[in-house]
Amino acid sequence: MEITYGHRIMSDDDPYIEIAQGVNQIVADAGNPGMTPVDLLPFLKYLPAWFPGAWFIRVARDAQPMIAKFRNYPYNEVKRQMADGTAKVSFLSMHLEELARQGKQTPEDINAVKVAAFQLFGAGGDTASGPNTCLLNTSKTLGQTFSALLTFILAMLHHPEIQKKAQEEIDKVVGNDRLVDFSDRDALPYINCVLWEAIRWHQAAPLGVPRRAMSDDVYKGMFIPKGSMIVANMRAITLEENVYAEPHKFCPERYLPKPAGNSEPFPTFTFGHGRRICPGRFLAENSLWIAAASILSAFNISRARDSKGKEIVPKLEFVNALISHPKPFQCEIRPRFERTASLVHNAVHDDSLDAEARNILAD
User: Where in the cell (predicted)?
Assistant: First the structure.
């Protein structure tokens, strides 16, 4: 939200959260791309909403006001802040400044920027909140970034020994007097392995974005006619036994060079292929890395306990949808050190980061 609109979420009743949750619910109701009747038979879009089985018409009709609100509300807020001179650096503000500089402020140009900002946030974000002993509510369709982060937390609950090893690496490199930053990344190879294993172990997007064959083709003797819809089975690729030994096992060491590991490749293909590869992959990977490294540096992730003090072992259950994410589970996330709370608080309220953010966006 801050990268896209320059808006920092400080409370659970923030209007941006309400809008985002509404849009996420719309995505969940719409189902997987290419899997609804209207995707296969486009003429069905002309059916009236009352027609039996035309649920997709009703979903599209009811979604329009919320989609429009998410496009326009942040845009209007950023425009107002720019006029007042209070706007923070963001994807939207920088593009609006560039359009103004080039004199390209047609309705089409403005709408393109609105949609791009909408997609940027929608691909990565969702919300969750709760006290130290929390139920991570993931009932709505989540962005892939957030889904991968929840999978990482779930993996740490099942593998406390991996969490301990990762924290030992951080303590050795960073210590406990500051938070992790990107300058530490090269010195934290195990953290990098933990992140990529969370991405591979349970791929957030089990089926790739549908593609269309632009011409007739033949693959392993199978004829693929022009216009065919092709969906990559990303889940099968991440669990390919010829590439990943014991693929269902969460094992960050698999990526380390031999003899410490098995020199298996990072699953970078999870961000797509070819010219349609995810344009936000570097932002997503960096966001995941800094989030996972910061959590491991500042907090201990442990299992919640029931009323009798017995540990609650969360089940490895996932929602299978366009974006697959863990079903709600309980855990405890507590500061590792006395200084952790103040370090995190100071980082959240540090507005001096805007200059660095501008440089990152400019690059």
Answer: Membrane
